[in-house]
Amino acid sequence: PENWIWIEMGKLVNIKNGFPFDSKLFSKNISGKHPLIRIRDIVRGYTETFTDEECPEEYTIKKGDILIGMDGDFNVASWKGEDALLNQRVCCIDSASPYLDRRFLLYYLPIPLMKINEATPSVTVKHLSTKTLSITPIPIPPLAEQQRIVDRIESLFTKLDEAKEKILEVLDGYEPRKVAMLHLAFSGELTKTWRKEYGIDLDSWKRLSVSELCKSLKYGTAKKSQAEGEIAVIRMGNLQHGEINWNDLVYSSDKEDIEKYQLSPGDVLFNRTNSPALVGKTSIYRGNVPAIYAGYLIKLDYDHSRILGDYLNYALNTVDAKEYCNLVKTDGINQSNINAKKIGEYSFDVPSLNEQSEIVCILDEFFAKEAEAKAKVEATLDAIEAMKKSILAKAFRGELGTNNPEDESVEELLKRTLV
Q1: Partner of 131 at 20 to 30 A CA spacing, among 37, 156, 191, 298?
Q2: What is the pLDDT of residues 362-388, one digit of tens each?
Q3: Strands lying side by side in the sheet with 336-337
């Protein structure tokens, strides 16, 4: 709009980099020490770093001050914590200007910062300078219009956030529904009607161990994989939610390994070594891509006459199986391990092949519908974020319908007051 103006940020606000505190004096002991804001503290709004070192008063940050991380993603946020000292590589924007609403600037800054980040070349961590910030142009409408824009943004964002909260509640219910469904499946409740129809009693189920159900438990290849090769090598990161994720693949051209470790459709893989939270993941190989498997995995070579691969896969992804894995794992530095003997000792209830097939069909249908619903919900979340970006883009082009052409032009106001 004609009564707006573009102006370099440094001509309207003060931009102050942090004080070069000595990191050797940093501490987590809060007794009698000063809280210190570092880059990682900007978004989370609190600090766990303290120092004895003194600095000029001007480096004390107050609640509500606008902070920008000068390294990495160039995050920007209003400080939510208590008064704290400003460390180097974090800058503070002093927006105490009669021409600028602080909230308006806070909503606008992520837009140029994202563009600067994308245009900043870097081999490792990207760096931002106060000089770049100083010459960054920002659109300035009349102060009354800035306030109207902020009010409109916050009104629209409030409605979108309410919708987002309800969607997240739906997503939060996904895991409990999965757990409940698997419990019904492996307690016999899921096929109660089916057994009644065929005159089968729950006593027909047998408690069997993995070793009783499998002919062997085979470790994968210990040889190093390559970025390219003849055949994919499935690693622990490729086991996701009971299926094989085909992202981030490595390969092998080792003839001996290909012959010894090549997978067949229906093979079940158990993750024997991983972080304490992820060890014990189990997935089934569908044959989408020819593959062998790495040494951190165990192939459960099950007896097809006693158990279905899908039933075994579902059984090892239950809460009961995860609790067992957590109980028997051995912990090392950052990693846990479950050997073949221990996973072989895990037992669960197994019905006839026909009933296993019925259970698998019901679970497959249920999880397919859940996945479809989850994808739609996640798409809605993406749409909400896109709508927020669209609102901000329109806001800073003066297209939210809030502009009053009778408001005094910012350019004329600056000319009169800065003379």
Answers
A1: 37
A2: 999 999 999 999 999 999 999 999 999
A3: 273-274, 336-337, 330-331
